[in-house]
Amino acid sequence: MTIPTFDNTIVLIPARMASTRLPGKPLADIAGLPMIVQVAKRAFEAGIGRVTVAVDHQDILDAVRAHGFDAVMTKVTHQSGSDRIFEALGHADPERRAEFIVNVQGDLPTIEPETIRASLRPLGDEATDIATLTVEITHEDEKTNPNVVKIVGSALSASRMRALYFTRATAPYGNGPLYHHIGLYAYRRAALERFVTLAPSTLEKRESLEQLRALEAGMRIDAEIVDSVPLGVDTPADLERARAILGNK
Questions:
Q1: Tell me: the pLDDT tens digits for 2-57?
Q2: CA-CA 20 to 30 A from 157: which of 53, 134, 178, 207?
Q3: Residues 124-135: pLDDT tens digits?
Q4: Residues 71 and 38 in one domain
Q5: Which long-range CB contacts under 8 A does 79-86 form with residues at least 24 apart?
Q6: Is 192 inside any structural domain?
């Protein structure tokens, strides 16, 4: 059985210039560095494999390379991060050395390196196609918030579950914990190659959740349970929070 190692793993970080709520988001300054460079630093510190940023604009490409990280240009027209990283994989790894691909979102500048490392652990089970992360919901208002995606799963251990469904609804019903899905993914190469060939599925379109496409196609997704949700920078207020966090560090 092949397990993830530094030599057979690549971390890909999709970054797109267009953002309706925060224009030019990847280049926003956080503690003296562009946000996308802060994300690349966190991925590098995770130490799980080489790091490449998948960009759609020359300014992002130049900024990433100016700070010593690898970057590849991808199409502006991609509709999802998975499509962007698949194109980037072909550019960054034409020899097909990488058997495991970790997709770290480009708007997570404060993510802990250990959180990134945790995403690979479920792929130690050869039955798992895709790995992701989740955290137990502790704030009551998040349980009914449709912007907080929930993962309904079957426990495999105290720190891992097999995903049965993802939803914006409050689920599962009844007493017990609810889990917030964190949209960071680790793929077997074959799983990513299959996923990008699949058409959007019925439940995916209904819930507006891309990961349901994989479940509907019979792919297995396991989730590692972590301690906290990383800050995603989507608004000016989020950006100020990230600046405060990394400025203090």
A1: 889 999 999 999 998 887 778 899 999 999 999 999 999 999 999 999 999 999 99
A2: 207
A3: 999 999 999 999
A4: yes
A5: 80/210, 81/14, 81/105, 82/185, 82/192, 82/195, 82/196, 82/210, 83/196, 84/14, 84/16, 84/54, 84/56, 85/12, 85/14, 85/54, 85/192, 86/192, 86/193, 86/196
A6: no
